[in-house]
Design a protein that fits this description.
Elements: H1 23-38, H2 40-43, E1 49-51, H3 56-73, E2 80-81, E3 90-91, H4 99-104, H5 106-112, H6 114-136, H7 144-156, H8 158-165, H9 169-172, H10 176-190, H11 195-210, H12 214-234, H13 239-260, H14 262-270, H15 325-337, H16 341-357, E4 361-364, E5 367-372, H17 393-410, H18 417-432, E6 442-444, H19 449-452, H20 454-457, E7 464-467, H21 479-486, E8 497-502, E9 505-510, H22 515-524, H23 533-542, E10 547-550, H24 558-569, E11 574-576, E12 579-583
Parallel strand pairs: 7-10
Antiparallel strand pairs: 1-6, 2-3, 4-5, 8-9, 10-12, 11-12
Helix pairs in contact: 1-6, 1-7, 3-6, 3-21, 5-6, 6-7, 6-10, 7-17, 10-11, 10-12, 11-13, 12-16, 16-17, 22-23, 22-24, 23-24
Length: about 575
């Protein structure tokens, strides 16, 4: 067959097609602009300040973002480390280690440092989540405008605002729930002609989420089962048709997941330093019922006095359950008036997730009513019972975004022109009640020069006890972990902010206070200490400490701390740049 060159049609030259950017790219750029605008306070100090109103979790995530690529490049196990809580170490799979993001963001970490990598992750997390939402809605919603509204609501709603303010990098990357939405279409609605291949891909998706945040994986899988049950109830005649394919896909999913995640699963179920009893009170991580109608200061439109938010359970980082009267009323009206199976199923699944997020008993304005809720049936389920039901708010937000997308897609088909205007205004008003306030914080995250030049002052493999010690205090407690990360993991630390255990503590969220550090607390506050210097020295030796570094702080009697440290270590100490160093 001959190749015939293209010729211009009779009557005119060849028409050149003008390139148009893909709609998904435009949506992604729009989401990025919003994310940058919300985090504008950090943009001028990208390597010396962290996104969020506290520093504890940002410093923790900066440490793990540094550890993952460092461990891989140095032949260390990225999922078990004694660089923190030395010599026992930390089981990474019981902690928010985000190893997947550690790899993805490694170019930033290795060039600009852990603070910059954390900030990039916090800015891009909502963008990636919104893009995933737009893509997942493709089989269900035709208009890009409707899918974009859903993406913005999902990526920057009260749930994401709350967790961004707390620096929860693992949660603002909420890509998994939209992926599950797409899987609902593939597995339950459309059906698959290649169940084994589809199931294997689902297993890989689950494995990826395992290396991002296991709690979202567990809660997402739970809600996938709930959604499947809801579809079976709504379409019972299709169950027999779909069931064989689902069984095959499920077998492939479990098989692939078990192979890929065999070691991480062992670490979770039987690995070293895993917690050996309940981590937290089951009634701590729950949605306060008041939060459903009471916004926090992170939301611009506050129709109730701001002080009411201060009475709700937990901190602002876990108060992301706001729906608001306008949004609740809109959803109720839509469920009753719009004949859409998708809309009503999404509302039903969202309602289930909201009820489950209330935890084992209803809490109102931090008051435990004792009224039992369905989650109480799950509190004794191994592993799932450790999950915080409040995190199910991401599914509630996802379902609400689906309802909005279906409705916005439907509005242009309304034949009564005034009805189109009223519907648009009512929807816009409800969405605007979720408008974020310009309230995101950025906290100072500078590092003493000593640690920035640690290779000049420490030896590789040193175990360094810092003053202040690492604690789980939300604001400032994890600074020494940031210093270690900035030093490119040159040394180990006996402290740490983590979930784990030791021979005498079945659950830890920080290393126990050593005799030496107890003495520091006492003398630093100007009080006598009952700790014997010999006992303090023994506590340092038991942890393998080779160097003590004292960072002067306001409000602490630094002279007394230096004298105490010199007595314990037998070294008079030396001033090195902006710290004091004592070598044992």
């Amino acid at each position: 067959m001959l190749d015939v060159p293209a010729v211009a049609p009779v009557g005119g030259p060849l028409q050149r097609t003008r390139w148009r950017p893909p709609p998904l790219l435009l949506v992604g750029l729009g989401l990025l602009v919003i994310s940058l605008g919300l985090q504008h306070r950090v943009l001028g100090a990208f390597t010396t300040s962290t996104i969020g109103d506290v520093t504890g979790d940002p410093d923790l995530f900066g440490w793990w973002l540094t550890w993952t690529p460092w461990a891989i490049l140095h032949g260390e196990n990225p999922l078990v480390t004694d660089w923190m809580h030395h010599p026992l170490g930390v089981n990474a799979m019981w902690n928010t280690t985000v190893p997947l993001l550690g790899v993805v963001l490694s170019p930033v970490t290795l060039t600009a440092g852990p603070v910059a990598a954390y900030n990039v992750g916090m800015i891009l997390g909502p963008v990636a989540s919104g893009i995933a939402m737009v893509a997942a809605l493709g089989p269900f919603v035709r208009r890009w405008s409707a899918r974009t509204v859903a993406a913005v609501v999902y990526a920057f709603g009260p749930f994401q605002l709350a967790h961004a303010s707390a620096g929860h990098l693992n949660i603002v990357w909420a890509v998994f729930p939209p992926v599950l939405l797409y899987l609902v279409h593939v597995l339950f609605v459309r059906g698959t002609q290649r169940p084994y291949r589809t199931g294997a891909l689902v297993g890989l998706v689950f494995a990826a989420q395992t290396f991002l945040y296991t709690q979202t994986l567990a809660l997402g899988a739970l809600m996938l089962v709930v959604t499947g049950a809801a579809l079976a109830v709504r379409f019972p005649s299709r169950v027999r048709e779909r069931l064989p394919g689902l069984v095959r896909a499920g077998a492939a999913c479990v098989g692939v997941y078990a192979v890929v995640c065999a070691y991480p699963l062992w670490l979770i179920l039987a690995g070293p330093q895993r917690p050996l009893s309940t981590i937290r009170d089951p009634l701590y991580g729950v949605t306060d019922l008041a939060n459903i109608v009471v916004p926090t200061p992170l939301t611009a439109a506050r129709l109730v006095p701001t002080g009411i938010a201060d009475t709700m359970r937990a901190n602002v980082g876990e108060q992301g359950g706001y729906l608001g009267p306008a949004m609740l009323l809109l959803v109720l009206v839509l469920v009753v008036t719009v004949r859409s199976t998708l809309l009503r199923l999404a509302a039903a699944v969202g309602l289930v997730s909201l009820v489950l997020s209330l935890g084992p008993a209803i809490v109102v304005a931090d008051h435990v009513t004792g009224f039992p809720m369905p989650w109480a049936l799950l509190t004794d389920v191994h592993l799932l019972g450790e999950a915080e039901p409040v995190r199910l708010q991401v599914v509630t937000t996802l379902c609400l975004a689906v309802v909005l997308a279906v409705w916005v897609d439907h509005i242009p088909s309304i034949r009564w022109l005034p009805g189109v205007g009223l519907a648009t205004l009512a929807t816009a008003f409800a969405v605007l009640t979720w408008l974020p306030a310009d309230a995101y914080g950025a906290r100072e995250a500078s590092t003493p020069a000593f640690f920035a030049h640690a290779d000049r002052h420490l030896m590789s493999g040193d175990v360094v006890e810092t003053v202040p010690a690492v604690t789980s205090v939300w604001d400032g407690g994890a600074r020494p972990m940031r210093w270690q990360a900035q030093a490119d993991m040159l040394y180990k630390i006996p402290g740490g902010y983590f979930i784990g255990s030791d021979p005498t503590h079945p659950v830890l969220i920080e290393a126990p206070v050593s005799a030496y550090q107890q003495g520091v607390v006492d003398v630093g506050a100007g009080n006598p200490t009952a700790v014997a210097p010999a006992d303090a020295a023994a506590s340092l030796r038991a942890s393998g400490v080779t160097v003590v570094v004292v960072v002067p702080e306001t409000g602490v009697d630094t002279g007394a701390v230096l004298s105490w440290t010199a007595t314990v270590t037998g070294d008079p100490g030396s001033r090195v740049e902006d710290v004091w160093r004592f070598r044992l």
